[in-house]
Amino acid sequence: MLTERISGCDAVLHMVGICYGEEAADQATNEPRLSYTQMEYQIARALRKPTFVFLFREDFGYDPQPPENEGERALQAAHRESIQRSSALYTLITTHEELRLRVREMEVKPRPAESAGSRAGPGLGTIIATLGFVVVAGLVGYELNRRSAVTTQVVPVEEKRPVAPDTKQDAMEAELQRMKRVAEETAKRAEEVQKQNEANAQRIRELEKAHAATPTPYIPPVVYAPPPTPAYVAPAPVPAPLPRLPNGFEDFITGFWNHHASNNAWDWANDFSEQTDYEYAKGGASRSFIANDWQKLINRYPTRNYSNLSLSNIQVESDSSVQLNMSFNYRFSGAKNASGSTTTHLTCKRVGGSWKITKFRETINR
Question: Which residues form the domain of 152?
Answer without folding.
Answer: 2-113+121-193
